[in-house]
Design brief:
Lysozyme; 2 domains; globular
Amino acid sequence: MPTTTSPSRARTRTGSAPRRPARRGRPRGRGRGRRVAALLVAAALGGFAYAVATGLGPLGEAVQEITLPLRHEDIIRQQAADKDIDSSLIAAVIYEESRFRDQTSHAGARGLMQITPATAELIARESGGTAFTQADLATPQVNIAYGSYYLRYLLDRYGGDTEVAVAAYNAGPTRVDHWVEDAGGVDDFEAAEHIPYPETRAYADNVLEREREYRKNYADELGL
């Protein structure tokens, strides 16, 4: 015989309200942890910005190493003294040419100062480098020596005018000779007016700006 349930017991079971699941409270420490993390991130970003602006402290030095690197300063000092060139100018040309990384361009220019094969052969003949081979341009000593030699040659060619010499390093002396002639001479030469190539104008501006930055930030390393 099937069992039956009394009406009173049935009412009690069907009439009782279902239990609602208890709400889980938010962990008290979670919001505080997020605020602390946000403050730490803000402090880190603030410290990074301060390091970039001032160059102070280990972080500032690390940032400077990325944004304004310097390598082979002993070779740069040596060549600057030998060629009578400001070492900060050599460093600035290296930075603009290669960022201090050994590389070869699509035009075949090689090494830290991006010397083309034709220019390297010319320098080798003029400087007495009888044992020179193109592979030597991958050597920092040879590359910086040849680049500094060429830079000295251009400075002499244009009466010591750094801006014109740097423009010739980028565009070649044949083009710059025409620009200087159109300007009426080196003394009347204005890069913004007489350099028709935007790339060369930017190159000259960048090198002169980097020269000032290297002089300011690496005076001891460059022997200034």
